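Input sequence (149 aa), recorded before submission:
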Amino acid sequence: MYVIGGCVLLWIFCLPVFFAKVNVYASIVLDGIGIALYFGMIAWRHPGNGWYMALALPLTGLAAAMILLFVAGIRRIRLSILSSSVLVLGEAAVFMVAVELLIRSFRQLPPGITWSAVVLTCCVIIDAALLTVIRRSRLREEVRRRMHI
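Predicted structure, token format:
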């Protein structure tokens, strides 16, 4: 059953390779739906605890939405490498906090952040440094020169 589900997921992931005119946004939505259905198949096969509705479905939806936001930022707004790095780190911080909050909710613990606060702090510090580099042209040119961007 798992192998069949994995093959279906592989087929869904490879659709853009076979069809040149597939919309990238539709492809990401299909990927998210495929992953959610695969998790649903696993939850159906091994019922218990309600982990699918409490954890798998919200995290899959959030991940797909964040990937859509990133792709929209790259394609529509034409973000630079540094700006896209800021976006990725911000999304990683939000995702980690969401993971911890959903896990705490699933385990029926009071809401709060512990380990994700470390990730959030690191991402905020790196984002602040990257935003400083983006805003100061001399510093940005120095980074481009040294990193060959």
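Checked by second reader. The chain has a mean pLDDT of 88.
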